[in-house]
Amino acid sequence: MEMTVFLCEDTIEGILTGVYDGWASRKGHGNLRLQLAGESNLELFCQYQTVRPDMVKAEKVRCAIRQKISAEAWEMVYTAAMSLDPGKADAIYRFLTGGFHYGAQVTRMLAEPAVQKLFFLSRQVINESHHYQEFLRFELTENHILAARIRPKNNITAMIAPHFADRISGEDFLILDVGRSLAAIHPANRLWYLTRLSKEQTDRLSSGQPDIYRDLWKTFHDSIAIPDRINPKLQQSLMPFRFREFMPE
Amino acid sequence: MLIRESLTIQQKLEILSDAAKYDVACTSSGTDRQGRPGTIGNTAAGGICHSFAADGRCISLLKVLLTNACIYDCKYCVNRASNDTVRTYFTPEELCSMTIQFYRRNYIEGLFLSSGILQSPDHTMELLYQTLYLLREKYRFWGYIHVKAIPGADPALIRLTGRLADRMSVNLELPTAQGLKMLAPAKTRTRLLTPMRQIQQGIAASRLPTGGGSSRQGTLFPLSGEKPAPISADPAADFPASPDAASFSDLPARFPPADYAKHSRFVPAGQSTQMIVGATPETDHQILSVAQALYRQFDLKRVFYSAYSALNEDSSLPAPGTPPPLLREHRLYQADWLLRFYGFTADELLSEEQPYFNLLLDPKCHWAIAHLEQFPVEVSQASYAMLLRVPGIGVKSARRIVAARRYSRLDFPALKKMGVVLKRAGHFLTCGGKMYHPIRLDQTYLANTLAAADQNQRLRIEGSFQSFRQLSLFDDFHLAPPSGEDAPKALFGQF
Ligand code: SF4
Q1: Same domain, yes or no, for B171 and B42?
Q2: Three-state SS at A48
Q3: Residue B375 pLDDT more than 50?
Q4: Of A111, A140, A233, which has the smallest distance from its Cβ to B408's Cβ?
Q5: Do A121 and A144 lie in a common domain?
Q6: How far apart are CA A139 and CA A146, in angstroms?
Q7: Reported pTM
């Protein structure tokens, strides 16, 4: 039978709708594949079908995962969907075929390639979001907003925003993914939301205000190191350069 | 001792963080506290590390001294009274605004506050308490605070402070009583262990289920007989001029029970301590046995080890310029891990006859090679406890193995995906009866292979080739360190 490729939008709704449509097509798991729209060239002997993101379908799949598999499985699917890996949509589909068959135990079946793959993607995303909880830095802008710029590989802005919303709930802050022009906006004491920013809006954020506390931090950072232990290689391996683009130290 | 008043905050920070840096503890772990409206800060159970200093150590907290002035003269310490250095202090307000401003920018998880002894232990402890009180009450800071308990301070002060801190620590510094006597005559074992015991009991008591916040508060605020009054004077105002050393009995009047304390327990993240490695002749076996006793008898959360940086001139200390024993420190941390999470005891790892760790091998490999009769173990059958003893298998991978082997036969590639380091584990495991390396288990061969595999890590720790010159100490397994010429070759081969 000819292979059918479902082209999904690169969002959680897009991918979950792809899962729904793929499943509902009853073509058999071996005869279909999920692919992100815009990825790679078209192949011969394949039939392409574009998936229109649909909140209702996506929500159905989300509920099914939580109820028929587990909350942990949903966590894995969600985080994997934030990955930069172009094969993530199909990886999620493969994982779910196992998941709906075996139920909650699937997340422990680490010898299965489909489970391994999703586990790997999810772990990469979670690790990167941990790194940004550590290395993200807020700058005080002219209008007293705390603004952080990041350039993550995976799409993690929405994953780290709740952490900051909890700890500095009384602050106006925003976290901007510079590469994706995606920002989490948090007005003081209110709920945060995700939005896209225009070029002028993002430009206005990099103001370069003088800040005494940034200078104090650099002083502290320098003087806390023990001279006869200086080890730049160790420092670099623990705090790779790609995180340092927006760090003052 | 002259205390300089006319310094900028920048200069003070430089001096007081510089003076704090030999305290190695910088973790922010142990409490999981959500944020609350109207406050700033939360804490994460695993702790969060925000940066790495040029020496590769993690920076999680603003680690500073309240003052580097000290009436004592502990020989190993940079702040000892006999050293000719500039002395200064932070006011509690300065400390608070720095903590808050750093925290908002996501530089830190909170504050790690220590201090030299100003006038008396009581006076110093009271100043620490004032600072924490201000930070929790006026600044509404709910992030992480690690504070020192000053040995010799009144238990009432330690009790009050513990209600505002996440973690407290008393540094043991030297593992044996002789060591202390030699280098810190003002500190005795008992003087150090008394506050440790008090904190341990305080933690245990505040974990007990109680009828509600009020009764718990009663036991922990034994001084709060009088009616609480609002904070009248700015606490910063009477610093550093001393209130009469014994006047803390009026504390409850000046500091009504903190709002924060109603929501928190006593030292919820537990207590820790630190031992200096290499200032005195204690062996690894002695140090590790003391650590084990502290974990068992004092319920410590963490014991930290600090490779001694030889800064002070003294006949009873290593000569200035002696490099700190970093690799030795690293082996102690690895062994400490084995005590806490892998079910090992100090006497299994070391003995009177073999009192030092092998610097070329991590302690787990070292143990496994000395106990080859227990290997190889079969992945599908070995108990969880035994899996934990296999070099190259960590707690997480052991758990994953136990979970996954119920559903399918595991092979080596699958183990690798679960985080098992086959370079090491491969020598000690079989999968369905098969070895990863089809070779016999031979002590000398294994010791050499595993030491070579460990080389990159050693280099990372020491940061230079210098290590190879020091590694001539032990040859338990007929190991010889690479000779001067071979060393660089072997290293470049790995890059
Ligand atoms: S009491 Fe503390 S600060 Fe003072 S000399 Fe001893 S170790 Fe240093």
Answers
A1: yes
A2: strand
A3: yes
A4: A111
A5: no
A6: 5
A7: 0.85
